[in-house]
Specification:
The complex is a heterodimer of chains A (about 725) and B (about 70). Chain A is of the alpha/beta class and about 725 residues long. Helices cover about 60% and strands about 10% of the residues of chain A. Chain B has a single domain, classed as Ferrous iron transport protein A (FeoA) (SH3 type barrels). The chains are: A alpha/beta (about 725), B mainly beta (about 70).
């Protein structure tokens, strides 16, 4: 942690770091996309795992200005972990993201509440530019704003923009080019209740700062603020004790004072022609969408459409991708000269990459749907509808968003729990989110369902595999709820949870930003999960292709003895030889060592290998199976993953390996098992304790093994 | 004492004060200020939480929180 700087830097002439701040639902993301386009990347803030969106843009006067999109917040005083970032950055001049300038986006239709944040940032002594958004919506609500008056009252540049259409962006950039001349600063305002001058002076001397408001914030947030040392905290505590000054209520007092000033200011710049207007469209839609019956029915129907789309629409590009990789594999084997290196490409790398590429259509679709639901304002209605139900399970309405995101991936979902202010509700949400069916399970489900469930339609329009798939999603959701109810009894909490949130008006989705989300998430998946999958595929290929020398050297002798009269020229001989080699490979040794444990679940050692590699990431199952079943295969045998699995025969019984009992047992195992190292790592980082990931791993593994055992034992007897 | 939680759908009131609790600062940040007019839009299907209209926008809060908002 860095200390607060000992010397305040002189105002920089160059503009290189900008942060974007604003209330939630003020159009911040739209403005970010307008300014940076596709030149953005998602990373983490140093030390913590809050999504950090960074982009770059250029001005006529300057290139490559960094723009960071900070989490949406109503005030710089944090209530949740996401919001805390804002204060941590703005209160620490040595923070690598400390801005030269803040763009604050203000919702013109709700001027007073939005300006609260603006005055706070202004008081910190950071140059501010105000992007006044949604002027059109304000006009519809009967609010007209005197722009130049607002500008002169606030003493900051005010630029009306339309973040959706991009109107006003050019003007905004023009003003930014005039940095720093265009930015006069407001000093200390009288919004902060009086603090004895000598205390303020001591803080300012110690931290070598000049800003009074920052001194007050340090005194107010001594225990939580980042970027100060333990010595600093001790001094602040001492000052508090010595003066006997009550910090309690200081913050409320400040906010009340600011609002008093803003009420007058807003009155002088606004002309209202209608008294408290509410959008008629939003009112009418809410009559249906949060209705006590239709509300839930519509929510269920939307979920159903999403799953149906993922299963049937995504299947077309997925089959195509699968085909392309299968033919690439066979092309490599037939055209390139035979050898270890070519085998590694054809049997290790190509199926490995194919196993990544095949998920892209589904992930892109799923994230598109989530982005649309968030964007239109519908997700807030879901929170509202589900809050009371979720509370019964120890969760909050806000848990619905992580749970639904969990359908895409548990990692961003666990990170999304940061919006839940109550610790108990948050920890329970984290513990059960990985039970939701994430997209990594999807390929495993799809391939297993396709193997054993006939592609028939039920009732004319719903297809049976789709229905089973929906069932798997429901199973995950019910398991998450049940798990939450159990955790509710064990997790202790001292603070009651609360829910206070804005209900946004309905808006049409911004297709450009939906597109950007699809692109970003798919790209992140391919490069992050892809690296692991590719590495695992290569290791597997090595393990499956080589084995202990003593077992393999007499392979030919053993096979010749079994098949007298045949030579390597015969297909039966080659198949036997390959099977023999695989059975004596390192992978087989590994798989066979766990076979006794998984035998009661109906799994053989080949599936055992896939279970082990799945701990890197679940989706590795498919590529593992593909690699194992294609090792040693003839060039003309190369088929799609599904065909390979379907034709796999159990050498002992002579029957197919993938019977319905085995497939369903595997499905259940994958539904419950904690097979994702990345999720465990994220849970560790989010809870800052090894305890929670361990509990999570233990309870999910036990659940998976038991449930799978029951399913296999029952189904195999029918 | 009349609080926001006691209002029915469609009723309005004027905030007198916010009772001190953990969420007071949050409510203040969100614009629940003494003197503001507040109107109940609708309740969630199971009676809780509620959605109110205040200073030009819709705000969702649970009855527990609404109980901290005293009306005139």
């Amino acid at each position: 942690m860095e200390a607060i700087p000992k010397k305040s830097k002189p105002v920089k002439k160059k503009l290189s770091n900008i942060v974007l701040i604003g209330n939630p639902n003020s159009g911040k993301t739209s403005l970010f996309n307008q300014l940076t386009g596709l030149r953005q990347k998602i990373g983490n803030y140093p030390g913590i795992t809050v999504d950090k969106k960074t982009g770059y843009f250029s001005l006529p006067t300057q290139k490559n200005i960094r723009l960071v999109d900070l989490p949406g917040t109503y005030s710089i005083y944090p209530r949740s972990r996401d919001e805390k970032i804002v204060l941590d950055i703005l209160s620490n001049k040595n923070h690598e993201l400390y801005p030269d300038l803040v763009i604050i986006i203000v919702d013109a239709s709700n001027l007073k509440r939005n300006l609260l944040l603006l005055t706070q940032i202004q008081d910190l002594g950071i140059p501010v530019i105000c992007a006044l958004n949604m002027v059109d919506i304000a006009r519809k609500k009967g609010i007209a704003i005197d722009n130049s008056r607002l500008q002169s009252e606030l003493q900051v540049p005010v630029i009306p923009i339309n973040a959706r259409s991009g109107e006003g962006i050019i003007r905004l950039k023009e003003i930014l080019s005039e940095f720093p001349e265009a930015f006069k600063l407001n000093g200390y305002s009288s919004f902060v209740p009086d603090i004895p001058e000598d205390i303020l002076q001591q803080i300012k001397t110690h931290f070598e700062i000049t800003n009074n408001y920052l001194a007050v914030i340090l005194l107010n947030h001594t225990e939580t603020i980042a970027g100060i040392t333990d010595t600093d905290r001790k001094l602040l505590r001492k000052l508090k004790n010595e003066s006997g000054y009550k910090i309690q209520g200081l913050q409320s007092g400040e906010v009340l004072n600011r609002y008093k000033y803003l009420s007058l200011l807003v009155k002088s710049v606004e002309t209202r022609t209608k008294e408290s207007f509410r959008s008629r469209l939003t009112g009418n839609l809410d009559k249906i969408l949060v209705h006590r019956i239709y509300g839930y029915l519509i929510f269920l129907a939307i979920l159903f459409v999403i799953f149906q789309a993922i299963f049937s629409w995504a299947e077309i590009p997925m089959d195509w991708i699968d085909q392309q990789f299968a033919s690439l594999e066979s092309w490599i084997k037939t055209t390139l000269p035979e050898g270890v290196f070519v085998n590694m490409i054809a049997d290790g790398i190509v199926p490995g990459i194919g196993g990544i590429a095949i998920f892209v259509p589904q992930i892109a679709l799923l994230f598109a749907f989530i982005a649309i639901l968030e964007d239109t304002g519908y997700m807030a209605r879901v929170v509202f509808l589900m809050d009371k139900i979720m509370r019964k399970f120890g969760l909050s309405g806000k848990s619905v968003v992580p749970l639904i995101s969990g359908v895409a991936c548990a990692i961003p979902a666990v990170m999304a729990t940061r919006n839940i202010e109550n610790w108990k509700e948050r920890i329970i949400t984290i513990m059960v989110t990985p039970l939701m069916t994430c997209s990594a399970r999807l390929p495993v489900y799809i391939i297993l369902i396709a193997l054993v469930v006939p592609d028939k339609s039920v009732g004319g329009f719903i297809n049976l595999p789709g229905l089973i798939l929906l069932g798997m999603y429901l199973l995950g959701f019910l398991a998450a709820l049940t798990g939450a109810a159990v955790f509710k009894k064990f997790v202790k909490s001292y603070n009651p949870g609360f829910l206070v949130m804005e209900m946004p008006t309905y808006k049409a989705p911004r297709w450009k930003s939906v597109g950007i989300t699809m692109w970003e998430k798919s790209r992140t998946f391919v490069f992050q999960a892809g690296k692991i999958i590719l590495a695992v595929s290569l290791i597997l290929w090595v393990l499956a292709s080589f084995g202990p020398e003593k077992d393999l050297q007499n392979a030919d002798a053993v096979v010749s003895a079994e098949l007298p009269g045949l030579t390597t020229a015969d297909k039966a001989y080659r198949n036997k030889l390959n099977a023999y080699k695989l059975e004596h490979s390192y992978a087989a040794i590994l798989g066979k060592s766990i076979e006794p444990v998984i035998r009661p679940l109906g799994f053989d050692w080949k599936i055992g290998i896939a279970l082990i590699t799945s701990f890197a990431a679940r989706e590795v199952f498919v590529s593992t199976i593909a690699t194992i079943y294609s090792v040693g295969e003839d060039a003309d045998d190369t088929s799609t993953i599904k065909q390979k699995m379907r034709s796999e025969i159990n050498p002992i019984t002579g029957n197919k390996v993938y019977t319905p009992a085995v497939a369903f047992s595997l499905l259940i195992f994958y539904a419950f098992a904690m097979q994702c190292m990345s999720t465990l790592a994220i849970v560790y980082r989010e809870t800052k304790s090894i305890k929670w990931p361990l509990i999570q791993f233990a309870y999910m593994s036990t659940l998976a093994y038991t449930a799978s055992l029951v399913v296999y034992q029952i189904l195999s007897r029918i | 004492m009349k609080t926001l939680a006691s209002l029915k759908k469609g009723e309005t009131g004027i905030i007198k004060q916010i009772h001190d609790s953990m969420i007071t600062p949050k409510l203040l940040d969100m614009g629940c200020l003494p003197g503001e007019k507040i109107k109940v839009q609708y309740f969630a299907p199971m009676g809780d939480p509620m959605c109110v209209h205040i200073s030009g926008y819709d705000l969702v809060l649970r009855l527990n929180e609404a109980d901290k908002i005293e009306l005139e």
